[in-house]
Design brief:
The complex is a heterodimer of chains A (about 150) and B (about 170).
Chain A lengths: L4 H9 L6 E9 L6 H21 L4 E3 L3 E4 L4 H14 L4 E6 L13 E3 L10 H24 L1
Parallel strand pairs in A: 1-2, 1-3, 1-4, 4-5
Helix pairs in contact in A: 2-4
Chain B lengths: L7 H28 L1 H4 L8 E6 L8 E11 L2 E14 L2 E5 L11 E2 L8 E4 L4 E4 L16 E7 L2 E8 L5
Antiparallel strand pairs in B: 1-9, 2-3, 3-4, 4-8, 5-6, 6-7, 8-9
The chains are: A alpha/beta (about 150), B alpha+beta (about 170).
Chain lengths: ~150, ~170
């Protein structure tokens, strides 16, 4: 489900089944050497988030990305997002990112870190197959978290 | 010569009939056009999409076949990729939609090792038999949709989704 009016109505009616929020974490980088890499990583993360949404449509709500700059205190904002989403009584909140900074925080905070694959030069078919491969690795991770 | 002369009265009546006829036609034409419009509408959705799957390669084991078509949203065109689970039942080819009838997740064939020979939805453990029939006591309330299929020169073509005919 997406974060829009129609889907959120379904969510509120079906809370027992739709119990998971997915939030992409995106770093904004304005510096010369980081700009392109950050943009490419954002493209990858958002595309992957859409594929995840398509696979688990009936159990997750895909939120708009949480974007931050390098200098921001992202831990604090991260906590606030978690608290806010908890109000909607999600049982699980997953964060998807390819920003290396989060990889150290890792599993117990439900941050799923996937190294970015540059999709820029791929055609649509190649992109889809790369994203499908990534998705296949993610399905067991989701299933395991849901089982707990 | 005098017989062929057109009198003023005749001339006026000819012109008026002529002009009146044009005006009447001008009014009636659009009305007729509107009335028959539904017949002239181009049919959408009935089109078949060619896949890269050879008919000869289809086996009894359901296999995922992706197909891409162009969707037009107002002025924005995008390529949508859909998938189908395709298998052979005798000589007949069955293509099932992978969209779970519960809340719209994507099901996979033998996605749960505990249940062989069934489709499995990872979201809420919904299950379907091979023919798309939902397994009772799992969340889905109906069978998987089926796609129309046809053979195009040895390659599979997938058409629009039709509700599954299983009871």
């Amino acid at each position: 489900m997406h974060w829009n009016g129609k889907d959120s109505a379904v969510f509120q009616a079906q809370k027992e089944f739709i119990d998971t929020a997915v939030v992409p974490l995106i770093q904004i980088d304005g510096s010369d050497d980081g700009f392109r890499f950050a943009a490419s990583a954002a493209d990858f993360t958002l595309s992957l988030a859409n594929v995840i949404e398509n696979q688990f449509k009936g159990r997750i709500i895909l939120f708009p990305s949480f974007s931050y700059t390098k200098s921001q205190d992202k831990q604090a904002v991260f906590k606030e997002w978690q608290e806010e989403l908890n109000k909607a009584s999600f049982k699980h909140i997953f964060f998807v990112t390819s920003d290396r900074d989060w990889s150290t925080i890792g599993e117990e905070q439900n941050i799923i870190w996937i190294p970015s694959v540059p999709l820029d030069s791929m055609d649509q078919k190649m992109r889809n197959s790369v994203l499908e491969d990534q998705l296949r690795q993610l399905i067991p991770i989701f299933a395991k978290k849901w089982a707990n | 010569m005098s017989n062929n002369k057109v009198s003023r009265r005749q001339f006026l009546s000819y012109t008026l009939t002529g002009v009146g006829g044009f005006m009447a036609a001008g009014m009636l034409m659009p009305m007729v056009r509107f009335a028959v419009d539904p017949v002239l509408q181009k049919k959408e959705g009935g089109d078949f999409v060619l896949t890269e799957k050879k008919i000869a390669d289809i086996t009894e084991k359901p296999e995922r076949v992706d197909f891409t078509f162009e969707q037009v949203d107002a002025w924005y065109k995008s390529d949508i990729t859909n998938a189908a689970w395709v298998y052979k039942e005798g000589d007949e080819i069955i293509a099932l939609s992978p969209v779970c009838k519960h809340l719209g997740c994507t099901v996979s064939w033998e996605g749960d090792p505990a249940h062989k020979n069934q489709f499995f939805c990872p979201c809420h453990s919904g299950r379907y038999e091979k023919n798309g029939k939902n397994v009772p006591k799992t969340p889905p309330l109906g069978p998987l949709d089926q796609y129309e299929v046809r053979d195009n020169d040895g390659f599979l073509e997938i058409g629009k989704a039709i509700p599954n005919t299983l009871a």
